[in-house]
Amino acid sequence: MERITVAERRARIGRRHRLAPSQQAADPVEAAASLVVLHATDPATVHLSVAARVPGSEVASTERALYDDRTLIRMLGMRRTVFVVPTSFAPVIQAACSDDIAVKQRKLLVKHLTESGIAADPEASLTWLRAVEESTVAALSLRGSATAQELSADEPRLRSRLTMAPGKAYATQPYVTSRVLFQLSAEGRIVRGRPLGTWMSSQHQWSPVENWLPQGADAKPSADEARTSLARAWLGSFGPGAAADLQWWSGWTMGQTKKALAAVEAVQVDLEGSVGYVLPGDEAPEVETEPWVAFLPALDPTPMGWKERDWYLGEHKARLFDTTGNIGPSVWADGRIVGGWGQPESGDVRYQLLEDVASETAAAIEAEADRWTKWLAGVRITARGRRPSPLEQLLSQG
Questions:
Q1: DSSP character for 64?
Q2: Tens of pLDDT along 333-384?
Q3: Shortest CA distance to 77 belongs to which of 59, 89, 69?
Q4: 3-state secondary structure at position 85
Q5: Is 169 contained in some domain?
Q6: ω into residue 388 within 30 of 0, thus cis?
Q7: 388 in a structural domain
Q8: Domain for residue 323, yes or no?
Q9: Is residue 337 within 8 Å of residue 314, measured between CB atoms?
Q10: What span, in angstroms and rounded, lies between the C-alpha atoms of 257 and 11?
Q11: Structural domains of the chain, count
Q12: Is residue 363 a part of any domain in this protein?
């Protein structure tokens, strides 16, 4: 097997993830495609990930790609996570990952509907759910776009309540609204549109999928074809990586992962003692880029691209990750994490290095922190959908 060193893997990050100055992307779509997808659980991550890779990028340019040009689409994908995806690649994500998630979530929702007494048995619950879904989609089509509240006014059954964890101290009775909209989104029938409020809002209007995909979600490859395409895209951006890395990132079974790797004829390589995979013809050493530094946001696709992270994370996991495996804001230099950053109430970007760096690198990091302070212009990014990392929390105090 060809041997690919840690140094070569780090060099690939600078070039393929558009982080070295000479390799940066031309626009938000190119930035997203370079990483396959952008994480969007926290809406701020999308804009910060783009700004780290597109010179001169502003919130407005990313919003234009998402909501005006619609060359990017926000959708549910791998690991039941929300991503921003180049619109042309959305059918692949749908068939490779989202469809399986939708099947599992439908069974779970039917179970909860039955247990909550909304219908007498699973068959009746499924019939009820399908009727509500069709009515909701019809109402959304008439409006063109709508909030969850507006759709609930059009379809009152969305205000039915689920009974969750009855008899427990944490029992709740949420409306079924969010679950139905989640299900329709997972099936690729509706799309999260513009946020309600600022670009950091996690509440969105909903739109019919045809507003982004004129042929709808049905114009997609088979599941096997889609998994092959997604494996090829991941290897092109994140390879070399282990089978376990791809399995974790995609949310597939190991059987599905191995089948996809075989379909792309992935080549085994030696990752300094472990087995990794690259695309055919991609075994050669990466041409090194110029030195680079980057401030990446929490949940950025680069640090979240592999399950095994020691080769770029070192011993910094306890300082930079929360207890559920979500990374906070990180500082990078030449393909490795060297620190983290955060913001106090002033909105200034503060950072702390976790290892020694050369004086030239330290100066570049200081300049990058100043650039981000100016870019954010007093806007303070706080943790959403995750706990702040220990270092992020420390730097955000005072």
A1: I
A2: 999 999 999 999 999 999 999 999 999 999 999 999 999 999 999 999 998 8
A3: 89
A4: strand
A5: no
A6: no
A7: yes
A8: yes
A9: yes
A10: 26
A11: 1
A12: yes
